[in-house]
């Protein structure tokens, strides 16, 4: 039997693999600047020429971008599933809002389940910080704008995705972050206008979800996430039905009388 020669792997390829893993797991995020070349070479225990070769390979793949005199950055458009024009189209369509909520129902329930099972101490610290920021918006009442509250809400759900340690779930949520944030802002406005208890319900639901994850109760976390999205769907369905009834009544009122 003829045995082929085993090719030794280039050091740069090992560096590429490590950096790709850091991007996939969310350690390096879109738009983030890499440490200085000297520091990164020391961190990996490699020479600067090997590091430069690895950076060039990642840049050729579209994962990194280099700026003249400004270092190397993770590409900002990684995971950008929706362009701004499409965001605008989706934002103005009630059926798209409903579809996104249905998508979130499945996605975020799974994120919560795995976050409760897999969250590390560092994940719990990050989740605590995101939850505290959301609670600060709730506590400030009308002083926090809907945009601020929506962003804090979306960041809380993103922190849950990060704690899930599922790379596909994380990058799906991260790619949808702008759409998710706009969806939350739109939902908040409609819910608060329709039901006085909406803010109190959202505070309680987020609190129960947070506690379930922090205590490692996976099935409870899944249930709380599912019930949270179901409540939002219920209120917004009611809002849409009331809008349809109002439009129907206005059309009748504008019909010429015989």
TrEMBL record:
Species: Halopseudomonas sabulinigri
Gene3D superfamilies (UniProt xref): GntR ligand-binding domain-like, Winged helix-like DNA-binding domain superfamily/Winged helix DNA-binding domain
Keyword Transcription regulation: yes
Keyword terms, alphabetized: DNA-binding, Repressor, Transcription, Transcription regulation
Record-linked SMART domains: FCD, HTH_GNTR
Limits of the HTH gntR-type domain: 9-77
Functional description taken from the UniProt entry: Transcriptional repressor for the pyruvate dehydrogenase complex genes aceEF and lpd.
Protein name (Swiss-Prot/TrEMBL): Pyruvate dehydrogenase complex repressor
């Amino acid at each position: 039997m003829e045995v082929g020669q085993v090719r030794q792997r280039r050091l740069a390829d090992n560096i590429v693999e490590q950096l790709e893993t850091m991007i996939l797991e969310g350690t390096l995020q879109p738009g983030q600047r890499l440490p200085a070349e000297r520091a990164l070479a020391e961190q990996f225990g490699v020479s600067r020429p090997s590091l430069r070769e690895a950076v060039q390979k990642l840049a050729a793949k579209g994962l990194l971008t280099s700026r003249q005199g400004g270092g190397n950055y993770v590409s900002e458009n990684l995971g950008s599933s929706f362009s701004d024009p499409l965001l605008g189209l989706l934002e103005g369509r009630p059926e798209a809002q409903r579809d996104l909520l249905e998508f979130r129902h499945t996605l975020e329930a799974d994120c919560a389940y795995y976050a409760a099972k897999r969250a590390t101490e560092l994940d719990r610290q990050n989740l605590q910080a995101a939850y505290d920021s959301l609670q600060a918006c709730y506590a400030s009442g009308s002083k926090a704008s809907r945009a601020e509250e929506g962003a804090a809400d979306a960041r809380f759900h993103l922190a849950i995705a990060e704690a899930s340690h599922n790379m596909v779930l994380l990058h799906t949520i991260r790619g949808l972050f702008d759409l998710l944030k706009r969806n939350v802002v739109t939902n908040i406005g409609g819910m608060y206008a329709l039901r006085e208890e909406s803010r109190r319900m959202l505070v309680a639901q987020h609190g129960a979800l947070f506690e379930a994850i922090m205590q490692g109760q996976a099935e409870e976390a899944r249930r709380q996430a599912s019930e949270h999205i179901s409540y939002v769907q219920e209120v917004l369905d009611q809002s849409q039905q009331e809008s349809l009834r109002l439009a129907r009544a206005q059309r009748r009122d504008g019909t010429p009388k015989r």
